[in-house]
Amino acid sequence: MATSKELSDFLVATERRAFKQTVYAVHDDHAALDIVQDAMMKLAEKYYDKPIEELPLLFQRILQNTMRDYWRRQKVRNLWTTL
Questions:
Q1: What is the pLDDT of residues 38-52, one digit of tens each?
Q2: 31-39 long-range contacts, Cβ below 8 Å, gap at least 24?
Q3: Secondary structure string (H, E, C) spanning 4-51
Q4: How far apart are CA 4 and CA 32, in angstroms?
Q5: Nearest alpha carbon to residue 26 among 60, 58, 74
């Protein structure tokens, strides 16, 4: 079970890499920051009780799913704005 200090340290350590990865994927700094923050919040809210060893894989999965959600929303928005 990860303590709040361990969870905080993990998020600080992965923040920069996750942001760069997301910027590369979505090509928008502001959207990337929102996606990373959403992923971090989901991890902290739902998986705070998991062991520290499981957090990196959980965070990557959450980050990938959050990016997919962003792309789905963008696809719908682009469809409506082109009509």
A1: 999 999 999 989 999
A2: 31/70, 35/63, 35/66, 35/67, 35/70, 36/63, 38/66, 39/63, 39/66
A3: HHHHHHHHHHHHHHHHHHHHHHHCCHHHHHHHHHHHHHHHHHHCCCCC
A4: 25
A5: 74
Q: Residue 68, Cβ neighbours under 10 Å: how many?
A: 11
What residues contact residue 15 under an 8 Å CB cut-off, 6+ apart? 36, 40
User: What pLDDT is recorded for position 83?
Assistant: 65
pLDDT digits over 3-36, tens only?
Answer: 889 999 999 999 999 999 999 999 999 999 999 9
Task: Decide: 58 and 47 in contact? Cβ < 8 Å.
Answer: yes
Cα separation, 41 vs 75, in Å, equals 24
